[in-house]
Amino acid sequence: WPVHADHIAAINQLKKSRNAVILAHNYQTPEIFHCVADITGDSLALAQRAVDTDADVIVLAGVHFMAETAKLLNPGKTVLMPDLNAGCSLADSITAADVRKLREQYPGVPVVTYVNTSAEVKAECDICCTSGNAVAIVESLGSDKVIFVPDEYLAAYVAEHTDVEIISWKGHCEVHERFTAAEIDSFREGHAGLKVIAHPECPPDVLASADFVGSTAQMQDYVVNERPDKVLMLTECSMSDNVSISVEDVEFIRPCNLCPHMKRITLANIQQSLETLTPAVEIDESVAIRARAAVERMLAVGR
Ligand code: 13P
Ligand code: SF4
Asked: Coiled coil: which residue ranges (predicted)?
């Protein structure tokens, strides 16, 4: 903890001298989330809040696609990613060439991409979505058929909640695909009255067994508003740590699936990034112009 305190003091000082803000995803560890972050939330909130910051420097405490999204929306600002290797199994599951092939296979069918993709992939798609607005985005297109990439399970969840025909891809989140319905059953047996809330990146049988399904922000709202006696959050480990601080009357049952990519971000590399103003995220303008349009179309539809 004294080491953390030194980093926290240094980072908060550097934020002032660099005119920097730190955007932190809900999966960041509590010392980042609660002690140095200026803006926290789900992927959609981070994208929305990145638009209106007047800081010169944005530090993205999250994964690479989130930093790219912030850069797309703030081309004139320095966007720092404390560890460029913080990737995502979903973003790695599809390439721009894959999307071009899908378009050839299904001519005229619009393509929605989950925000968990590279800027190159976004540039080939019509519009982005997040787990918080996926159904609304699909329905905003006014098409009876939509290609939805790359998360197969989020696509299945959307298909269940709309009449639009969904053509999906086989990408999975390496964290959420590990949860099982059998695991939920055994937790329910051991904890009477347990509420199970799940992220839509979980497999369909897991979502079918859950009491509530939503993005990380929607999961947090559920716990804060409903105040269940006991809750099991089927998502990345740090969520329960971060939410539990504000709801002391709720008991959190914690199966722990860590995202190794999110966990690459530390107080130490945030500090180093602010000291050196590296590594900065750059996106080729020929890609950025098209990827930005896909993100801006999403933001125009809203949550
Ligand atoms: P949300 O915070 O948008 O629900 O996304 C979850 C996730 O896995 C981000 O990597
Ligand atoms: Fe990607 Fe899953 Fe990690 Fe989110 S939790 S960054 S979707 S691998």
From this structure: none
